[in-house]
Amino acid sequence: MQAIELNVRVARKTAEALDICAFELVQPDGSALPAFSAGSHIDVRLPTGITRQYSLCNDASETHRYLIGVLRDPASRGGSRAMHEQVNEGDLLRIAAPRNHFALDEEAPHSLLLAGGIGITPLLSMAEKLAAAGRSFDMHYCTRSPERAAFRHRIAAAAFAGQVRFHFDDGLDAQKLDIDRTLAAAPADTHLYVCGPKGFIDWVLARARGAGWAESRLHFEFFGAEVAASATDGAFDVKLASSGRVIRVPADRTVVQALSQAGVEIQVSCEQGVCGTCLTRVLEGEPEHKDLYLTPEEQAANDQFTPCCSRARSPVLVLDI
């Protein structure tokens, strides 16, 4: 289903930390925005023509604004640089209405929120929701240094400030996150939420899984990923179930690129297999999953894949297109 799109105005752009800007987005006419839930993100169509996802970090009870935080990434493929350099207060942006692939289980007896860098953004909205509902939670916020910790003043002023611990890479060893101790101290049936750089998420999940945490209690969201080429990347065919048309996917092209060249468009966004925008049903054949969006169990089912980055192990994939 095509996401609802709307125009928003940048009401405020503020420097939140070193290389991080916050953007407050409102309806141009001042009317209410579509509702969202903690953990949601929006797709932002940038002046350069590309689309990027940014988590909403304000209180989900607010209807008058969306708030996003954007890290200026030195390895940017154009998104964060455009937001920092080309988007200013008063500008209009085209966005897709909020979607949530990182939903909060509000009934969990305890929640453990672990943020790495800009990964704080969706977890802030979760903390607001949990605090408002009187639910039990703890948050740990890891950054390279204090000046890179966004929204520190907001957290300090929040009712849940006492439930947040900061950890800085350039600080004393005693204040750094002891992940094993943190996991061991969590109450029974705690749900864990982690967001940030891939290395941080991988580290947290590996320690949690090694400690016996059930997959159903592990929740995570990646902001970006490097799609690695492999020696087995070869050409294959995709067949469109609706028409029977067969389209060749060369070794140096993605499925999305091959389809687009053949006049078949699929909605895409991140192009790195992290957002799920392009998720497509597979009716026959075996995908080679390269995404970070599907869980290992979902990948093993082989009934859907992300054509922006994933490929095929079988000669043909029959797609529900």
UniProtKB/TrEMBL annotation:
Instruction: Give start and end of each 2Fe-2S ferredoxin-type domain.
Output: 236-321
What are the protein's UniProt keywords? 2Fe-2S, Flavoprotein, FMN, Iron, Iron-sulfur, Metal-binding, Oxidoreductase
The FAD-binding FR-type domain covers: 3-105
Q: Which domain of life is it from?
A: Bacteria
Q: What class of enzyme is it?
A: oxidoreductase
UniProt entry tagged with the keyword Iron? yes
Alphabetical list of InterPro entries matching this protein: 2Fe-2S_ferredoxin-like_sf, 2Fe-2S_ferredoxin-type, 2Fe2S_fd_BS, Beta-grasp_dom_sf, DmmA-like_N, FAD-bd_FR_type, FNR_nucleotide-bd, MRET
UniProt xrefs under PROSITE patterns: 2FE2S_FER_1, 2FE2S_FER_2, FAD_FR
Pfam families from the entry? DmmA-like_N, Fer2
- The yes or no answer to whether the keyword Flavoprotein is present is yes
Reported cofactor(s): FMN
Gene3D superfamilies given in the database record: 3.10.20.30, Nucleotide-binding domain of ferredoxin-NADP reductase (FNR) module, Translation factors
The protein's Enzyme Commission number = 1.-.-.-
An example of a GO molecular function for this protein is: oxidoreductase activity
Kindly give the PANTHER family that the UniProt entry links to this protein: CARNITINE MONOOXYGENASE REDUCTASE SUBUNIT, NADH OXIDOREDUCTASE HCR
Query: By what name is this protein known?
Result: PDR/VanB family oxidoreductase
